[in-house]
């Protein structure tokens, strides 16, 4: 298990200056929770300072929805390396491991923009910092649950308080983050700002994302739905608004990845 670095504990007593690419430096305090998110998890803090407008298209109808989210922390998209680290961590549980594995049916399919097979994309270290693709909504949910357990276990070892649950973001949280950070920066960039691969940034820009939001034809153009019993979920389309905005929870797609968020605190009348 990855241990919490000792310097992150010391940061309880001091403020560490971080890259200007991170919005949280403008509003951070020195709580252990925030220091752990910045230093260890490489997440960005997004305040609820403005309403975010979502443009939605369905069956040739277009609508704009204005939504204000709770303050939250948001990660980069989960990379191939991070997902493989997750698989290695759960290997001792064969059922969970098999459930989390990308479908073998994807192996021979082509990542068209890179002109390579999915098998090479997932296994070649050259692409370890690229977003993991072909993961279903249900598999991404299991990753978030594991991430919560893993981080809180590490905080237990360091005698630090637990964090809130990691989860998939809402569409408004991905859209809202764009006002504060470049959402196409990888975790590798946040760990080393000299790692700035234009091809990688472009790939992130064209990769759509899973969300926590449920899809309903009756409400999609008017408000957000958090009906977790729904078989359909909303896809945050970055590459094209004309793409199908929803998928079944078990569907996999080589143009869809995911990231995770944490609610920082609840505020009245957010969503």
Provide a descriptive summary of the structure in words.
The chain has one domain. Strands 9-8-7-10 form a four-stranded mixed beta sheet, with no helix packed on it. It has a three-stranded antiparallel beta sheet with strand order 1-4-11, with helices on one face. It has a two-stranded antiparallel ribbon with strand order 2-3. By secondary structure, the chain is α+β, with helices and mostly antiparallel strands. Helices cover 28% and strands 16% of the residues.
Helix content: 25-40%
Strand order of the largest sheet: 9-8-7-10
Query: Low-confidence parts, pLDDT < 50 over ≥5 residues?
Result: 6-30
Tally of separate helices? 9
CA-atom Rg in angstroms? 18 Å
Distance between the termini: 36 Å
Which percent band covers the strand fraction?
A: 15-25%
The topology string of helices and strands comes to HHEEEEHHEEHHHHHEEEEE
Based on secondary structure, the structural category is alpha+beta
Quaternary form:
single chain
In one word, what is the shape?
A: globular
Mean residue pLDDT = 85
Tally of structural domains = 1
Write the layout of secondary structure elements.
Layout: H1 6-10, H2 32-39, E1 44-46, E2 52-58, E3 61-67, E4 72-74, H3 80-89, H4 94-100, E5 110-111, E6 116-117, H5 118-123, H6 137-157, H7 171-177, H8 187-191, H9 198-205, E7 208-214, E8 232-236, E9 246-248, E10 256-257, E11 261-263
Parallel strand pairs: 7-10
Antiparallel strand pairs: 1-4, 2-3, 4-11, 5-6, 7-8, 8-9
């Amino acid at each position: 298990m990855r241990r919490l670095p000792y310097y992150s504990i010391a940061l309880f007593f001091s403020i560490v200056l971080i890259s200007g690419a991170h919005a949280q430096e403008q509003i951070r305090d020195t709580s252990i929770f925030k220091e752990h998110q910045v230093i260890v998890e490489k997440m960005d803090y997004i305040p609820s300072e403005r309403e975010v407008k979502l443009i939605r298209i369905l069956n040739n109808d277009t609508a704009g929805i204005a939504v204000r989210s709770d303050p939250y922390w948001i990660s980069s998209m989960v990379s191939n390396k991070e997902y493989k680290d997750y698989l290695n961590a759960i290997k001792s549980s064969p059922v969970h491991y098999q459930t989390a594995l990308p479908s073998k049916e994807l192996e021979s399919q082509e990542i068209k923009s890179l002109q390579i097979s999915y098998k090479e994309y997932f296994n070649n270290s050259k692409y370890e910092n690229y977003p993991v693709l072909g993961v279903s909504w249900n598999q991404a949910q299991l990753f978030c649950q594991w991430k919560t357990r893993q981080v809180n276990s590490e905080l237990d070892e360091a005698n630090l308080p637990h964090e809130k649950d990691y989860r998939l973001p809402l569409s408004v949280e991905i859209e809202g983050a764009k006002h504060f950070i470049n959402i196409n920066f990888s975790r590798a960039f946040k760990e080393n700002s000299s790692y700035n691969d234009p091809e990688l940034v472009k790939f992130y820009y064209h990769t759509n994302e899973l969300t926590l939001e449920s899809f309903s034809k009756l409400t999609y153009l008017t408000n957000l739905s958090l009906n977790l019993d729904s078989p359909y979920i909303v896809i945050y389309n970055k590459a094209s608004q004309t793409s199908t905005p929803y998928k079944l929870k078990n569907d996999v797609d080589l143009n869809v990845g995911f990231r995770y968020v944490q609610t920082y605190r609840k505020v009245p009348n957010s969503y």
